[in-house]
Amino acid sequence: MTGVSKSLMRFSGAEWDDMKKSSDKTVFECSACGRTTPRWEGKCSQCGEWNTVEERVFVVAGRAQDALGRRVRAPRGTPGQLGHEASGPPVELSEIPADGTTHMATGIEELDRVLGGGFVAGATMLLAGDPGIGKSTLLLQAAAAIAGTGRKVLYATGEEALEQIRIRASRLGVEGDGVFMLSTGDAGEIAEQMAVLDPAVVIVDSIQTATHPDLDSPAGTVSQIRECAAFLSEQARVGRIALVLSGHVTKDGSIAGPRVLEHQVDAVLQMGGESGGTLRMLRAVKNRFGPTDEVGVFEMRGAGLTGISDPSRLFMRQRGVNSEAVAGSAVALVVEGTRSLAVEVQALATPSSLASPRRVANGVEMSRVHLITAVLAKHMRLPVSNHDLVISVTGGLDIREPAGDLAIALAIASSMTDRPVDERVVVAGEIGLAGELRPIPRPDRRVAEAARLGFETCLVPEAGESVSGDASGVAGRSVTVMRAGSIAEAVKFALRPRPSPDESGAMSETMSIAETGRAGVS
Ligand code: TYD
Ligand code: MG
Questions:
Q1: What is the chain's mean pLDDT, rounded?
Q2: Closest C-alpha residue for ligand 1 atom 2
Q3: Spacing of C-alpha 322 from chain mean position
Q4: What is the spatial distance between Cα 137 and Cα 126, in angstroms, rounded to a whole number?
Q5: Ligand 1 contact, 417 CB (< 6 A)
Q6: What is the pLDDT at residue 428?
Q7: Is any atom of ligand 1 closer than 6 Å to the C-beta of 278?
Q8: At 89, is the secondary structure helix, strand, or coil?
Q9: pLDDT exceeding 90 applies to what percent of the chain?
Q10: Which ligand is nearest to the CA of 140?
Q11: 194 or 4: whose pLDDT is higher?
C-alpha cells in the first residue's frame, strides 16, 4: 500500500506548500522506493535510482471529480487514497452474493474461446500485440459483432482518422449500426461519452495514444498509460461497462509498453503470428474470468480476420505435398485448452564452425531446446554440440507444453541423421533428463485428434494413462497407439531408414545412434 498519509509525512512544510502551489493534480513518485516529490527528479534523492521518478495524478481528499464534475473515488493504488470512502466492515466470504460473471459473447468463436465466453461487464481487457498485427481489425470486428446483438459500443481511437476506419469497416463488411466512433485519445472525453452513451463495451484504441487531462507528460509514457488505464477502468467498473484497451508491445518488450498494465487489468490477450504470414494466434496471458490455456487461431484475409476452427488441418495442409521425403520434420500433438492440435516441428542441423554453435528456436522455448539437445547428445550420442540448430514450429504457433518435446527431438535427430520421420506417425511425449519418456496429460484427446486427421500411428510414452486407439477412430478411422519408454526407442521406431547410399552420398559424416530400444503396441 502506498498510503498517501505515509508519503505526506516525508514532506517538509516548505515542500508541501510548494507542491500545493505548483499543481494540485500531480505529484512525482519514485517507482522504486515510493518517495513522492512535488518536482520531477532524474535521480531519486531517497534511493538513488535513476529515471524512476514518474508523474502521477494526485487526488486530494474530497476533491476528486470525474470528467462530468461528479465526485468519484480515487482509483486504487494511486496516491489519492485519502479520498477513499470507507469500505465498511469485512464481509464473510459466504455472505457475498455469487452473482456469477456473465460473459458477453461476441459471436467471434475464436475470440470468445480465448476470453472464456466473451467480454465481461465492469472488467478491463488489454489486447496486446505488435503494430500491424491486426488488433484494430479484430476490435472493429468484435465491436460490430457486439453491436449486432443490440448493444451499444463506443469505439474511441487516437490512432486513426474516422475516415480510415470507415474504409476498413467497408472492407470488413461491417455496417456500423450501434458502433459509435470517437476520434480522441483524451481519457476525460472518453469517460464523458461513456456516461452519456452508456454503452455495453468501450474500446480504446490504443492506450498508448490516450492522455489523462491532469498529466503534462506526452501520450505513451508510463505515467500516462498507467493513469489513463486506472481512470478508465474505474469508470468502466462503476458503470458496469466492459473496457477493452489495445496496446503495442514495444521492441524491447517491457518498459514503456503495456506491460505496466498487466497487473492493472483483468485480462491480457496477446496477439501474435509468424512475421510475413497470415496466421494470427490469440492467447490469454492473464484472465481473471476465463482460461489462460486456450489459443484462438485466425487468418488475415482480404476481408479481415477469419476464425480457423480446425487449425490442425490448416497446419497439416501447410506441410505440403512432398512432406514424406523430408528429413527434419515431425508432427506433434499438443493440447491447447479444450482443443488438441497437430503441429509440425521442423529442425535443421548443420555442421558449425563456431565455438558455441548457434541455436535458433521459433515457437519453442530455448530452455526446452537445450534440454532436448543435451539428452540427444548424452543418450543418443548425436554430435549436436558441433552443429548449428534452427527449430521452428510451422504456422507461427508456440508450443508451450513439454509434450511437444518428443517431436522436437525427433525432428532434430531426423535432420542430424538425414533420416525422415515416418509421415504416418504423429507423436506426443515429454522427455526426461535420463532420456526417458514421461507421461503426458490427456493422451486420449491427442489420439482422437490423430485419428481424425488420418494418421496411422500415434507414438506416446509408455508410462501414463492407457488409451485405446481403435475406440477413437472418427469416421471409421482408427489409429494404432505405439508406446515408447525412451527417446532411443522412439527414434528407432519413428525414423525411417536412410535413403539409398547414392542419394545420401553427399553426407560424409557417419553418425551412430544407440538404437537399443523397443517400441510396443499397447
Ligand atoms: P491493424 O488491425 O491495423 O493492426 P494493428 O491495429 O494491430 O496495428 O491491421 C493492419 C494490417 O492488417 C495491415 O497490414 C493490413 C492488414 N489487413 C488485411 O490484410 N485485411 C483487412 O481486411 C484489414 C482490415 C487489414
Ligand atoms: Mg491499430
A1: 82
A2: 134
A3: 33
A4: 15
A5: no
A6: 96
A7: no
A8: coil
A9: 51
A10: 1
A11: 194
- Bridge partners (DSSP) of residue 391 are 347, 361
Beta-strand ranges (E) seen in 288-362 are: 295-301, 304-307, 329-336, 339-351, 359-362
Nearest protein Cα to ligand 1, atom 1: 134
The contacts of residue 391 (CB under 8 Å, 6+ apart) are 345, 346, 347, 348, 360, 361, 362, 363, 364, 369, 408, 411, 412
Q: And the C-alpha cell for 484? A: 515408447
How far, CA to CA in Å, does 96 sit from each of 99, 100, 102? 9, 11, 17
Place of cell 457475498: 96
The pLDDT assigned to 109 comes to 93
Spacing, Cα 413 to ligand 2 middle (Å): 42
Contact 304 CB / ligand 1 (< 6 Å): yes
Residue bearing the bigger pLDDT, 503 or 366: 366
Pocket test for ligand 1, best of 209, 269, 300, 301 (most atoms within 8 A of CB): 300
CATH of 315-516, one of 2.60.40.730, 3.90.700.10, 3.30.230.10, 3.40.50.2300: 3.30.230.10
**Residue 243 and residue 77: Cα distance in Å, rounded?**
19
CATH number, span 103-308:
3.40.50.300
Read off the pLDDT of each residue in 64-75 and give the average, rounded to a whole number: 47
Query: Helix, strand or coil for residue 28?
Result: strand
Determine the Cα–Cα distance for residues 47 and 44; give it in Å rounded to an integer: 6
For ligand 1, say whether the CB of 374 is within 6 Å of any of its atoms: no
* CA dist 33 → 37, 54, 65 (Å): 12, 12, 28
Q: Which three cell numbers stand for residue 39?
A: 518536482
Which pLDDT belongs to residue 501?
Answer: 54
Instruction: Give the distance (Å) from ligand 2 centre to CA of residue 246.
Output: 8
CB of 20 closer than 6 angstroms to any ligand 1 atom:
no
Nearest CA owner, ligand 1 atom 11: 132
Q: What is the 3-state secondary structure (H, E, C) of 384-409?
A: HHHEEEEEEEHHHCCECCHHHHHHHH
Ligand 1 atom nearest 303 alpha carbon: 22
Ordered DSSP codes for 398-451 = -B-SGGGHHHHHHHHHHHHHT-PBPTTEEE--EEPTTSBEEP-S-HHHHHHHHH
Q: Which residue has the cell 554440440?
A: 385
Report domain extents, the chain. Answer: 22-60, 103-308, 315-516
